[in-house]
Amino acid sequence: MKWTARSTTLLAACLASLVSVAAHATPRSLPFTYPNETLSKGEVEVELYTDVNAVRVPADAAAPTAGNLWTPEYRLQTEIEYGLTDRFELGLYQVFQAQPQAGGDNSLKFDGLKWRIRTRLAQPGELPVDIGFYFELETMHDELSFEAKVNLQRRFGKLRWMANLWAEETITRPLDTYAHGRSAHFIVNPTTGFTYEVTPTFQPGIEYWARGQIAPSGTTDQERNNTAAHHFVGPTIHLNFGRFWWSVGAYVHLNDQSTPSPGDTYGPVWFRSVIGLEL
Length: 279
Prior knowledge:
Number of domains: 1
Number of helices: 2
Distance between the termini: 31 Å
């Protein structure tokens, strides 16, 4: 095939088109923290979340003396985002969870749906601190939750700071009566972090996140510890290829680095991967 000036012009036009499309995407440069940018009107993006939590389970449920073993707990989410306008973004999640079982196996199940809308006050950079808002309804198999966030962002050249002030009201077993165990809990889930644009494709960072109740609930010490606020921090990497991007983070549990017991909600490390594709 002979390469001509016309071929060069066509290639340049295609590349320019891809760059123009990519500018409308909203990549998550930090796995837990939402940026201020929203999709443009009519844009669609799919995001795939994978959370891995290292916990302990009995090696054999029928033999208490067999000891315990490490096993991963998985949480898988698929999100479809749609730009209603240039400032309002709609999102729908499908959530699956693989609960670890004795012996190291797990049971994957459909856990429920999440519905959310996200907006921002102005174009990024117009205000001293970019401000956005996020509202979500979670309709899970065993709980109903309403979640709200204030999303903050500030750029310092190639360095970007982001934070999500995040709170959630959860009602467990919403179809039961209070006499059968229904209860409401207020949960905080703040996040913050920094990313640095080494190149447009490669952006390392560091992120902190926490989750739990300000006033822990439960009847046992383990239940109260599980519902208390747990804190994590760790390095992140964001790879941006335009319409396709990937963010990953590995986080250390700041509350406790000792080996967890079976039934503990959090292990010593947490891993999250988010893959995005603009359609």
